[in-house]
Amino acid sequence: MEGPAIELTSRQLQIIEIVKKRAPISGDQIAESLNLSRPTIRNDLSILVMLEYIDAKPKVGYFPGQRSVAHLGSGYLLRETKVKDIQSIPVVIRETTTIQDAVVTLFLQDVGTLIICDGDGRLAGVASRKDFLKVTLGNPGAVSMPVSMVMTRMPKVVTVSPDEPVLDAAHKMIFHEVDSLPVVVPGGAEDTVPGLQVTGRLTKTSIVKLLLDLEAKG
């Protein structure tokens, strides 16, 4: 059972609006916006953090809390959430894997798309259930073929970086009509083989869960 509602002061409401518009923002910057000193608003900030209207991270500053995000809506949440915050573990196979073994992996892991890497661990391509169906229907010999024969190869693979907003990733999924995206980072300067390293995968299901969590908080 929820406790009695706490009525916010005019200054506290102003602080919430400032944080919504300018996050991340420091306490000193908030105070400056109100033409007040930092000690004057210290208690207001503590109350708003406790009530989850704003949140704070050391060396980052203040940003909207769970209650504010719920009121700002799904658009704000998708813009402010990074891919790395909701990405899942990638299901990766080598490009030399047979189509039969790839299909077994597909169903055992219950995924719609497999991420395929070369012998150096760099992203080489992706293959979906549809790709496997196309090559195996009416072709019994296809099961022994390497998955490299049916995969979509780089650089045609649509990828996303860990720091991209989820909203941008969702637009990529819709535009390219795919259900998931490999999350990748460039190989480091010390790497002798150029290419992209796979750090995760982003799926439509992960995005839907994010939006459902928002609905539950609202």
Automatic annotation (TrEMBL):
Residues 86-143, 151-217 form the CBS domain. Transmembrane segments: none annotated. Keywords: CBS domain, DNA-binding, Transcription, Transcription regulation. PROSITE patterns: CBS, HTH_DEOR_1. SMART domains: CBS (SM00116). It comes from the Bacteria. This is CBS domain-containing protein. Pfam families: CBS, HTH_11. One of its GO terms (molecular function) is DNA binding. InterPro entries: CBS_dom, CBS_dom_sf, Diverse_CBS-Domain, HTH_11, Tscrpt_reg_HTH_DeoR_CS, UCP026546_HTH-CBS, WH-like_DNA-bd_sf, WH_DNA-bd_sf. CDD domains: CBS_pair_CcpN. It comes from Paenibacillus typhae.
